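anyone seen this seq b4? input:
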Amino acid sequence: MAEPLDLNQLRTFLAVHRSGSFTAAAHLLGLSQSTVTTQIRALETRLGRELFERRARGVAPLPYADDLAAQVASPLDHLSGLSEDADTPVTEPVHLAGPAEFLGAVGMRLAAPLIAAGVQLRVTTGLTDDLLDELRAGRHDLVISTRRPNSRGLVSEPFADEEFVLVAAPVWAERLKDAPLTAALPATLPAAPATVPPAPLPAALADIPLIAYDADLPIIRRYWRYVFNERLTAPAQLTTIPDLRGIRTAVVAGAGWTVLPKYLCRAELDSGALALLHEPDEAPLNTAYLVRRPGGSANPHVAKVRHHLLAAAKAWWADHEC
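predicted toks r here
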């Protein structure tokens, strides 16, 4: 009779299969990475098959590993729940991460019904690249990302389309109302040359301080390129604040002009605390994504949070951004 497979090795295998990484599995199981590696190698030796293709970032299951995961997932999940009452929901927290500005202004609104229904959330904020690296390492279950990840080891779904607006305090808007922001554009734009020459800001706007997220002006350059088909040249009067909420506060107080996501300054626009400096026929958008590791999670609340956030974001954006 064949010796039965080791349950600990199978649990470790399933964690690796679901997370796509030895490091992530170690974090989820509370083991060292060397222990996870040893257990997977022992299981591969026992089965006489390689289970995962090792990659620069994480691992990819081979076909036999997919078959094995399908066989053992349900029994192992059932065994894991035997210590809990059958009618008691899983209470393990779901780890959600994303930009502080978005989570503070919109994300927590979307998540509020989940929290009220008893889902535990652990929310982390940070920069997109850092959060995606931490997602791969198993520190988060879901990440709201400002861009689509390039890594094949992550699964991303469109989550929201951020609209950008060019704004300043009313005092500056009044000063600029008779000064066009750019020369009239032809009905049909010529093809852009290989190297686009810098287009200086109009004199009226260049005299007003620019408040930006950082000196590279990623949001503002995107706006200029999309709306005016020009490459923006940064003015001398530049203040950088690495928090969009701080930028909003400074601009409302009259510090200068900027480009912000509309969701972050809608109330100020409605109240007149901020004024639009330009209204293009088609506003520039940035798509945010809800990102997760491939495979399922042993915690069913992860899928519940994911499905709710995707549906709630779609409804919220339809009500507020259309």
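Residues 214 and 240 are 5 Å apart (CA to CA). The domain at 7-80 is CATH 1.10.10.10 (Arc Repressor Mutant, subunit A). kinda curious what u guys think
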